[in-house]
Amino acid sequence: MKTYEDLEGDGGSDIVGQVVQLGAKLRSRLDKVKYKVALMSGKGGVGKSSITANIASCLADRGNKVGILDADLNGPSIGHLLGVGNDIQLEMKGDGLEPGIGHQGIRIMSMDMLVKTADTPVMWTEEADATAVWVSTMESTAIRELLADTNWGELDYLLIDMPPGSDRIDNIRSLIPELAGVVEITIPSPLSQHIVTKSITKNNKMGVPIIGLIENMATYVCPHCDKEGKLFDGEDVHKLSERKDIPYIGKIPFDTRVSRSQSGNLFYKEFKDSVTGKAIAEAVDNIEKFTTK
Ligand SMILES: Nc1ncnc2c1ncn2[C@@H]1O[C@H](COP(=O)(O)OP(=O)(O)OP(=O)(O)O)[C@@H](O)[C@H]1O
Ligand SMILES: [Mg+2]
Q: Which domains does the chain have, with CATH numbers?
């Protein structure tokens, strides 16, 4: 495949120079971040964003400096979960944009902060016949810019909340080759396990390090008595982790308080001593063990 270096003449745009400059900017930002961790699942709606937000809350509670890149451009959730709306005053400092500061000082960057109103969808074009390739290129460029143009500052952890699907990790990996690893998230349902298996297989084939598998909505916890029961039928998720030879790093119950605490404090901060809070902390223990080993 040809690269920018192969171009003969550039009409004065110095495209090679621009690309090199962009790369250097990205590097200098990411060099200040100790561990970059992506949270993903082939499947949609399994709790990637909620788990990312609460893992960030737990890491921050332990004294880490944490940032979250919302890599879900079309369904951004992180701003909402961390209490940063699109009414935020965006501020440029030096050569970058100041990140939003969410609950517990967590730094975030999300498409939601850039759209005009809370109801505005992200539309790459008004044209109905835009090709999938063009849209995909625009999305890749947007992720690169969100990463490179944000003044993340010194961070212990940059968490990346991935959109559903297993394809976007290619882009993240090319932008962040030193990615510490990915956390895969599934719910116990057979359909979710089926799809997440594909994502794990792909990551294994591509040599993307997998920190482990989190089972979300594993059980139901009664908010009154903290007793647990089963919510979904499905094969024990431990079997999937054994079959794919990746660690099982967290069993997080369904807890109505997780979905309720969307604009107040994060669930973990408020309920860390609950069964679900302790389960989140256990997953974080495993993530910290993997990244700091
Ligand atoms: N452990 C949990 N207990 C209760 N509700 C949960 C839990 N995890 C997630 N939810 C709820 O499930 C819904 C889907 O969660 P979330 O948006 O985090 O999933 P997602 O995987 O990020 O979705 P998408 O694929 O659209 O990005 C939300 O309403 C969230 O509040
Ligand atoms: Mg999400």
A: 37-292 (3.40.50.300)
